[in-house]
Amino acid sequence: MNVSRKTLFLSLLLAILFWVEAAGAGESGRIFCTAPGCGFEDKFTIGGGMKSPSVTGYCTHGHGFVRVKLRHWNEYYHTHFCPVCHKAVKPIYAGSQVSPFPCPKCGQVTLKYQRRYMFD
Q: Mind giving me the DSSP string for 19-59?
């Protein structure tokens, strides 16, 4: 194999690995508010285990984070509804998606997520 074929093969392999987002695993950590004087902090889980498919989302109607239990992992990227008010939730698939939501305590958009561990 010459250098250009190796480069093409490696590039294709890396593209496939980074393009496919893994489902069937979750992560757990904490969310906290960085607003002065707020002090909000809570445990936060994104996704679910291999045998307990779940999606985490934000309910704009109830202004809070919810976990929606799924029947199968193939439902992970579908539209999900709040288990309390039955309105559509905005799904959170990664910790970086937490920051646009307001803090449940002070209402400011100052949330941060810190991953502690991943699970399956």
A: HSPP-S-EEEEEEEE-STTT--EEEEEES-BTTB-EEEEEE
